[in-house]
Design brief:
Elements: H1 8-18, H2 21-25, H3 30-38, H4 49-73, H5 82-91, H6 99-108, H7 112-133, H8 136-155, H9 159-177, H10 183-190
Helix pairs in contact: 1-3, 4-5, 7-10, 8-9, 9-10
Length: about 200
């Protein structure tokens, strides 16, 4: 092997590159990251044996980490909790959290789809509460104005406006038939876009 000397700064940069996120995630090979950090061409670089050994040593845990991440993502429990599974794979390895424990941990977490539905329901309840706080007559008047505006758009052929107009009219008919039903509840039952009524 040729007698090639690298400066301590180059070697330090190369060693830091072996610990970089790109190498850990598998986006870059250890040798490529090392050579790039040192400012040498990977294809023509002649690396000392200890550097080549360090690159090989850096590659082994990365292969293991990628295999563990794939195994965690493949668990049935991970299908409903992809963000949690990715986070577990990022933090742990097979030694710190074996797959059977990762499976149990994921199973104990709520479904991420359920959390999204709960957030959507909570937002709808907040919109309804806001509408109710402004007074039922005010809300009724805003719905009437919205129906009138949507009917103009529906007359021009806007099917989305026609659909929303029907929902609002249905909500108004619910309130007309059952005066004890709050308009905000009727709007939610009809599936109307409450946020657009301001």
């Amino acid at each position: 092997m040729a007698n090639i000397r690298y400066s301590p700064e180059q070697l330090a940069a190369g060693v830091r590159a072996l610990k970089s996120e790109a190498v850990i995630s598998g986006a870059a090979t250890p040798k490529a990251a090392f050579c790039e950090a040192m400012g040498v061409d990977e294809r023509t670089a002649v690396l000392p044996d200890f550097i080549q050994e360090a690159c090989r040593a850096a590659e082994k845990p990365n292969r293991e980490r990628r295999a563990y991440a794939a195994a965690v993502a493949g668990l049935p429990e991970a299908a409903e909790r992809p963000k949690a599974a990715a986070r577990i794979a990022q933090i742990h390895d097979a030694k710190s959290l074996p797959l059977h424990r990762a499976s149990a941990l994921l199973a104990s977490l709520p479904s991420e789809a359920a959390e999204a539905r709960e957030a959507e329901i909570k937002a709808a309840e907040q919109r309804r509460a806001q509408a109710e706080s402004q007074g039922p007559q005010s809300l009724k008047r805003r719905v009437e104005i919205r129906v009138a505006a949507l009917s103009l758009r529906a007359d021009k052929g806007d099917e989305g406006a026609r659909s929303e107009q029907r929902k609002l009219q249905y909500a108004m008919s619910i309130v007309a038939q059952s005066p004890s039903t709050p308009l905000s509840t009727a709007l939610t039952l009809a599936g109307a876009n409450v946020a657009a009524i301001r």
